[in-house]
Write a structure and sequence with these properties.
- The complex is a heterodimer of chains A (125) and B (169).
- By secondary structure, chain A is mainly alpha-helical.
- Helices cover 83% and strands 8% of the residues of chain A.
- Chain A has a two-stranded antiparallel sheet with strand order 1-2.
- The radius of gyration of chain A is 26 Å and the shape is rod-shaped.
- With 169 residues, chain B is of the alpha+beta class.
- In chain B, the strands form two sheets. In chain B, strands 1-2 form a two-stranded antiparallel ribbon.
- In chain B, a hairpin with a 2-residue loop joins strand 1 and strand 2.
- In chain B, helix 2 packs antiparallel against helix 3.
- The longest helix of chain B is centred in the C-terminal third of the chain and has 57 residues.
- Chain B is rod-shaped and about 95 Å long.
- The chains are: A mainly alpha (125), B alpha+beta (169).
- The interface between A and B is medium-sized, with 20 and 13 residues.
- Strand 1 of chain A pairs antiparallel with strand 4 of chain B, so a sheet runs across the interface.
- Chain B: One of its GO terms (cellular component) is prefoldin complex.
- Chain B: GO terms for molecular function: unfolded protein binding.
- Chain B: One of its GO terms (biological process) is RNA polymerase III assembly.
Chain lengths: 125, 169
C-alpha cells in the first residue's frame, strides 16, 4: 500500500512539474505574441504612410547608422511582405498558445485525479 | 440578502452577488493588475503624443525667410556646430521600422498632425475602457464589502445566540 501511494505521489509530482513548465512557456509565448502584435502595428503604420506618398517623395532605409535611398515601390513591397510574415508568425503563435492551454488543462485534470487516488489510498491505510 | 448593487445595472451584476468573497477578491486583484497595465500604456501613449506634437511645433516655427540662416546643429545634447539652413522645404521623417521619408514643410506638418490625431484616438479609446473597468471594479468592491459585512454580522449573531453553533456559509 505504501509503495502504491508513493508511486502515485511520484506520478502526481511529474504532472505538476510538466504543468509548471507549460505555464512558463505559456507566459513566454504571450510575451512573444505581444511583441509580434506591436511589430505588426508599426509595419501597418509604415505601409499606410508609404501608400500616401507620391513618386516625388524620397524614401530612405536605415542600415546601421546610414540612410540608404530606396525605391518607393520596393519599400512598399518589402513592408507588405514583412506584414505577411509577421501575420503568419502571429497566427502560428496563437495556435501554439491554444494547444498549450489545452495541454495545461489535461495536466491539471491528471493532477486532480492522482490527488484523489492518493487521498483514497491514504484513507484506506 | 442585502445586496442591491450600487453601480448601474450591468449583466455582470447578476453574477457578482452570487460569487463568494474569495472569488470576488480574485476578480478584484485581476482587475487591479489590468488597470495598472492599462495606465502604463496610457502614459506611454501620452508620451508619444507629446513627442509628435513637439516635432510639429518645431516645424511651425520654421519660416520661409530662414534660407541661409545660421543655426547650431547639435552633435550631442551639450555640443553644437554652426550650420546654415540650405533647404527649407525638405524634411526627413522617421516613420518607423527603419524607414525614413522625405517630405516638404506642409507634408511634414500634415504627417505629424495625423500622428497626433491617431495617438489621441487611441488615448480616447483606452480612456473609455478605463472608465468601464473602474466602474466594474467599484461594483466588485461594493459587493465584496456588503458580503463581508453580512458575514461579520452573521458570525456575531451566531456567537451571541449559541457559542458552539456550526457555521453555515
Amino acid at each position: 500500500m505504501d509503495k502504491n501511494s508513493a508511486a502515485l505521489y511520484k506520478k502526481m509530482q511529474t504532472e505538476v512539474e510538466s504543468y509548471q513548465n507549460l505555464q512558463k512557456s505559456c507566459v513566454k509565448m504571450v510575451k512573444q505574441r505581444a511583441m509580434l502584435e506591436s511589430q505588426l502595428n508599426e509595419n501597418k503604420c509604415v505601409l499606410d504612410e508609404l501608400n500616401l506618398l507620391g513618386p516625388d517623395n524620397k524614401v530612405y532605409k536605415l542600415f546601421g547608422p546610414v540612410l540608404v535611398k530606396q525605391e518607393l515601390e520596393d519599400s512598399r513591397q518589402n513592408v507588405g511582405k514583412r506584414i505577411e510574415y509577421i501575420s503568419k508568425e502571429l497566427k502560428s503563435s496563437s495556435d501554439t498558445l491554444e494547444n498549450m492551454e489545452k495541454d495545461m488543462l489535461k495536466h491539471r485534470e491528471a493532477v486532480g485525479k492522482y490527488q484523489q487516488q492518493w487521498q483514497v489510498a491514504a484513507a484506506m491505510k | 440578502m442585502a445586496a442591491t448593487p450600487s453601480a448601474p445595472g450591468k449583466t455582470e451584476m447578476i453574477d457578482l452577488t452570487k460569487l463568494n468573497p474569495e472569488q470576488l477578491m480574485q476578480i478584484k486583484q485581476e482587475l487591479e493588475q489590468e488597470m495598472t497595465k492599462i495606465q502604463d500604456s496610457l502614459s506611454t501613449l501620452h508620451g508619444c503624443k507629446a513627442k509628435y506634437a513637439g516635432s510639429k511645433e518645431a516645424l511651425e516655427t520654421f519660416q520661409s525667410n530662414w534660407e541661409n540662416r545660421q543655426i547650431l546643429v547639435p552633435l550631442t545634447s551639450s555640443m553644437y556646430v554652426p550650420g546654415r539652413v540650405k533647404d527649407l522645404n525638405n524634411f526627413v521623417i522617421d516613420i518607423g521600422t527603419g524607414y525614413y521619408i522625405e517630405k516638404d514643410l506642409d507634408g511634414s506638418k500634415d504627417y505629424f498632425k495625423r500622428r497626433v490625431d491617431y495617438v489621441q484616438e487611441q488615448i480616447e479609446k483606452i480612456e473609455i475602457w478605463i472608465l468601464q473597468k473602474t466602474r466594474f471594479l467599484n461594483s466588485v468592491i461594493g459587493v465584496l464589502e456588503l458580503k463581508q459585512a453580512a458575514a461579520a454580522k452573521m458570525l456575531q449573531a451566531q456567537q451571541q445566540s449559541q457559542p458552539a453553533a456550526t457555521q453555515s456559509s
